[in-house]
Amino acid sequence: MRLLAELDMAERKITLEELSQHVKDTDTWMAINGTVWDITGFAELHPGGPDIIQEYSGGDASGPYNSVHSLKLAEKNFEASQKIGVLEAKCVDDKLPTENTRNPRLETDLPDLDEIINLNDLEVVAEKCLNERSWAYFSGASNDGFTKLDNSEYYRKILLRPRVARAVQDVNTRTKILDDVYDTPIFNAPASLMMLAHPDAEMALAKGLAASGSTIIIPTLSSFSTEEIIEALPADHPFYFQLYVSPNEAALEKMIDTLCKIRPKAIMITADLPIFSKREANERYEKRIAKQKLASGPKVTTATGKKGGQARSAGVSIDPNLCWSNIKCLKERTGIPIFIKGIQCAEDAMQAWKIGCKGIYISNHGGRAADTAQPTILTLAEIRLHCPFILEEMEVIIDGGVRRGSDVLKAICLGAKGVCLGRPFFYALMYGEEGVRYIMQCEFKRPPAHFYFVQVFKPRLTAELLVLKDELETAMQLCGITSLSEAHIGLLNTKALYRDVETPGSLPSKL
Ligand code: HEM
Ligand SMILES: Cc1cc2nc3c(=O)[nH]c(=O)nc-3n(C[C@H](O)[C@H](O)[C@H](O)COP(=O)(O)O)c2cc1C
After folding, report:
1. What integer pLDDT is reported at residue 299 of this predicted model?
2. Sheet containing strand 27-32, strands side by side
3. pTM for this one?
4. How do the domains of the chain map onto residue ranges?
5. 47 CB less than 6 Å from ligand 1?
6. Which CATH number among 3.30.565.10, 2.10.109.10, 3.30.420.40, 3.20.20.70 corresponds to the domain 138-275+322-498?
7. CB 46 near ligand 1, within 6 Å
8. Hey, which end of the chain has fewer CB within 10 Å, N or C?
């Protein structure tokens, strides 16, 4: 009987007029892509902030919804019992918005991939081709952006000490993390709102990374649902999950259930952003849009507050009271290996080790958390100097400012097992999955050795030119190694780096 009643509800035709009557806090409806949902109470739980939900309550929200979410996200997040019915056909807003996500320049000015020969080129293209909102969001950092700059600059302070005459023709970039072997040590740094770069967002990322023998770190704040992203991976392909611990008890319980069901190889708990930082590029953009809206009509519901719209979302998604005991509890409840993302000093690396985390993920959120925080590669050097056993007993991964294959090699020589890139994947996604494959992997099937003509005259075409993995292999060969297991500190001159390493005042002893 109940099923029948639900079926009737789902088929019920609803007019825009009826929809518009359900706008009270205690009775809120919203249409998304033709389906009418009862979203009472959802505004305060929405990770993107309540304003946008309130603005479209009692109306058709397909436009803003589709600009950052997959078609199925609503189905996955709302209960079947929240489905009220379907919007009358003539009322359905069938235009998929392009204003927020797609810049017309992405269609006309985007150069062929093979014109891009390094990640700096890719960033230049992104600045030119992405719309203002997406560029501000992706490229932005906190305050003055000093940490963002330092993350990259400090790689330059490390010099290489190549070995010669080491027979380096055959090279591989394999790495092993928690018993899984990957063809490359390069992963995505988890990030939200990926659909601002491409409608295929994490789906393209998952496919491109898996095809290159790497894998995806699925973000909590994804544009597609976690289930959709996992389905995009080959069967049984390992994956990781980045967790923002929710301050909402029910949401956290639901998340724990999901994690226990999907069982990622590790949960990477982001700990470096307990409150939202000051993102000035976002603020400027949001203030300008708010002014424009004011000028064109009286109804302004987007944030004009001090920290801009993004500020609201953080409080909903991230628990500012996260502490080590919560993390320990999550570890025990899920039984899934835990990494702490956002480790920025040796003391916290030790703390993560003490509570039994399997890994640390050295990060300062790409300079989007505390500005003037020390660059991540310096943190790795600090840990290496003051608690080197961490590098032996835990899995260590790092992100922040990695833009060259030689940067990847430097991080591995200093003790990291894997290296993640944030912004470059957003920029690669301007090209969808192809862009991800392009920076990660060689599509070209090498001809048999006797096939000289093809080998010698092999054109450097899009599918063949692989930016980052190629750079890593080249850096390894030029330094005289053919496997990452041969990478060691002796391949580096770290004098300039170690000059800046802090001596922690009160490092707890290992025992
Ligand atoms: C179905 C359940 C929904 C979930 C799980 C969800 C989830 C999210 C997440 C994770 C973000 C990114 C937050 C961030 O990175 O700061 C976001 C942003 C956003 N969401 Fe939703 N959302 C849902 C429903 C909706 C609906 C119904 C709308 C339509 C009005 C909507 C419109 C937006 C917009 C416009 C943003 C971007 C906000 C910004 O620019 O800061 N979402 N949402
Ligand atoms: C646009 C953007 C969104 C991000 N969103 C998240 C997120 O949702 N969760 C998280 O743990 N880190 C997030 N980060 C931080 C990244 O995981 C990563 O630490 C950082 O981007 C690495 O620096 P890089 O961009 O210089 O490579 C985000 C970074 C960017 C640029």
Report:
1. 52
2. 13-14, 83-87, 35-38, 27-32, 23-24
3. 0.91
4. 2-91, 138-275+322-498, 281-317
5. yes
6. 3.20.20.70
7. yes
8. C
